[in-house]
Amino acid sequence: MAFPKKVIIREVGPREGMQIEEAPVSTENKIRIVDMISECNFPVIEVTSFVSPKWVPKMADAEKVAAGFKRYPETEYQCVYLNAKGIERAQATGKFDLEGVLQITASETFSVKNTNLTIDETFTKMDERICTLNEFNIPVHTIAVMTAFGCTYEGDTNPELVIQLIERSIAKANSFGENPKHILLGDTVGWANPISTEMLVGKVQDRWPEKDIILHLHDTRGMGMANAYVGLKMGVTHYDSSVGGLGGCPFSGAKGAAGNIATEDLVHMCHELGISTGIDLEKLLKVTEKIEGILGRELPSKVSKGRSLNSYRRIASN
Amino acid sequence: MAFPKKVIIREVGPREGMQIEEAPVSTENKIRIVDMISECNFPVIEVTSFVSPKWVPKMADAEKVAAGFKRYPETEYQCVYLNAKGIERAQATGKFDLEGVLQITASETFSVKNTNLTIDETFTKMDERICTLNEFNIPVHTIAVMTAFGCTYEGDTNPELVIQLIERSIAKANSFGENPKHILLGDTVGWANPISTEMLVGKVQDRWPEKDIILHLHDTRGMGMANAYVGLKMGVTHYDSSVGGLGGCPFSGAKGAAGNIATEDLVHMCHELGISTGIDLEKLLKVTEKIEGILGRELPSKVSKGRSLNSYRRIASN
């Protein structure tokens, strides 16, 4: 139970936020947003999704966004893809650092609704996924568990089930000679609370002390920052968040429900706790302001609203 | 370090929120808001301020609000007053449970700007305050430290200074035969972080284990809920919050800056952590919706936005 010295924050707003945003955002503005974020010195940015435009029409311009944004040397650029076709499209752009993710959903109902596959079917398909990754020479980097803490259909997820799902996924990966280094715990619809966060993170740390946990938190029920604090306190070093708190609650139909935790609030809290992020907070607050202008709506992050207080300034020296 | 079984949440929205709200709210609506909140079974509601309408014009209708709202037998109704005149006005309404508060501000600059008194001058005037309370037979109930964690003018408050200010205030009270039972730690402009919260709460608990701490938290920099979690984890039993997160950042001039932590988010988190509040969350979420209608703006609380998810429902049995 000790704060890490440094954390890796992955900005997922351009992908996860833009996918959900109601108002259409032009390709030009999407590119502008990625470039502005890059200028803040993020270690990782998730830029777009190479998925079927039939299912995710807002990502239909993935190639154009990829062609347009500027790669910064210190930043890793990621994208989402679901199959060989997606990998081919992403690789063709030459702009991405492709990483292999094996995704599994802990809630059976959510799994079927979101992926059309039961949990067992997901494991059956996992062989194919790993083979495809192997074909493209993409190592399996991450086991990602969606609804790892619970969902609106089934309530709390049993943490023991999550451990089993990770075990099975790692065993699959190992059987192909792969050894994923990261375990992503996805609080997909913001179901985690500080107790369940502590419990699941603790169990994963005990079982796989050598692997890095990525906490993917949503703020749907207002506990995102408290959960992030618990993660920090337990030494978790990887977090997903979205600039301004872009996005919403996926697949829930809850209009106005909060999205990912806001990057600037997370960055600010890390700096307050003496944890380095490498991210330029002052620049980031200006990015939020510009994105609010592009979207024509206020974003929910708090530090950005208090910025005229200059209250974030004192941490600039961290 | 253990969660309390039950906490007392004081709803401060009708006073602290209405004082800051930009759009004028009619007296009728103010009364309606207090009554709706009462129906949710709050232990304590801060209704209004009996202060000079010259300084706080939004509270000029304090008598009318007092005359109009309905007292519920299980609820304690509080109000703010600064002098004998205020007490007389509040007492004349016959609607309030008057409690004696000795207020001190830890930041010299903030103290002068907000009260026109230095810290030393505040102590000089404290004799008069206690005499006035005595005259009206109001016991000294609470020592309240504003900007206990810091402010935008002076940055972090030294927790040792806060301990000294509380010491001096209690000594003053004792010299008049008074023994305040509560210590309010006011994070007036949302400066606290989880580390400073833990440090100051710990010091106050160590020094006065027999007294109850009231945590008055703002969410200006997005850490309000994380700070509340730290307080809960340390066994703090009293919290101030505002329905929907009404209000803003006082005296800061930061337009749009977040106000008090949102009551429903706090209530929900408590229930998630197995801590009882006695408050009817489902009713409260409907109150937020109605207040949003009255104000014509969205309030920042998160649980209220996700309410179509019914994600709060499962805790109804707690």
TrEMBL record, chains A, B:
Domain Pyruvate carboxyltransferase: 7-285
GO biological process, one term: L-leucine catabolic process
InterPro entries in alphabetical order: Aldolase_TIM, HMGL, PYR_CT
GO molecular function, one term: hydroxymethylglutaryl-CoA lyase activity
SUPFAM superfamilies assigned to the protein according to its UniProt record, in alphabetical order: Aldolase (SSF51569)
PROSITE patterns xrefs: PYR_CT
Alphabetical UniProt keywords: Lyase, Metal-binding
Family: Belongs to the HMG-CoA lyase family.
Protein name, as recorded: Hydroxymethylglutaryl-CoA lyase YngG
Taxonomic source organism: Oceanobacillus oncorhynchi
